[in-house]
Design a protein that fits this description.
Oligomer: homotrimer
Distance between the termini of chain A: 22 Å
Order of helices and strands of chain A: EHEEHEEH
Shape of chain A: elongated
Number of strands of chain A: 5
Largest sheet of chain A: 4 strands, antiparallel
Strand order of the largest sheet of chain A: 2-3-1-4
CATH class of chain A: Alpha Beta
CATH topology of chain A: Alpha-Beta Plaits
């Protein structure tokens, strides 16, 4: 059973990552977010392998907030096709999950 | 099918993160743990958006060990409501999963 | 429902992590990969608790590519029993998931 979601996106500066995180938390679309980086991203671009520096944002939210959070990230993000992926939380501390639900109840 | 769990917590220093990691591995409640940080955490606090530095701990364990690991983290952690969330592992190398089960069999 | 997979491995240098990431992306076994590190790994070794520096690689791929990606990592990796674990993606941006499937369609 999915109790909550960890939603991931990546962007190309610490400032943009913080803007994405703050905006989602401010709008109550996530209870909190963690920014990790720089990380090295490796991907295909025009038939070559590119590497670039990126920052990862991990949002903690509920299933109920997911669609609105995805729309928020897509709107604020400046990539054409940003990574937006959600991983399920299947166990968790009852107190933390209650806090997470409370923080996002207005989202 | 859930084959194993990745359990996450965050705390506010590298030393506390290592204490949480070592304690769980020592008690055989996790096969291993990885500490990542500092990361930037963004959350609501008293009607404002706060950011702070934290360290993430990713424990690798089994479903059988989860409840005892959660109780261990809650006891050692000095936050009132620490993040304790488990994400499911749905595929994995058979050799690594066997090692993970063996390492935690006394947990 | 699993829409995609995030596959994790860890290794002991940034160079080996990049080799693992580039090889998988080049072979179309992952749409992209992110390398994070150094992280501090904590584990049992010969009845003591060891800590060491490692780098984490997060591959983004499909369920269809998983077995071939696992075999690739096991072949390139120089650990006897490397960590290879897959976490499910249960929600995601339709555009990003389509890109992920397209990038790995030859894998």
């Amino acid at each position: 059973m999915t109790l909550a979601l960890t939603v991931l996106t990546t962007t190309d500066s610490a400032e943009k990552a913080e803007e994405l995180a703050r905006g989602a938390v401010e709008a109550r679309l996530a209870a909190c977010a963690q920014i990790s980086g720089p990380v090295t991203s490796v991907y295909h671009w025009k038939n070559a392998i590119e590497t670039s520096q990126e920052w990862q944002v991990f949002f903690k939210t509920t299933e109920a907030c997911y669609d609105t959070l995805e729309a928020h990230i897509a709107r604020v993000h400046d990539y054409d096709t940003p990574e937006i992926l959600a991983l399920p939380v299947v166990r968790g501390s009852a107190a933390y999950l209650a806090w997470l639900a409370e923080e996002t109840s207005a989202g």
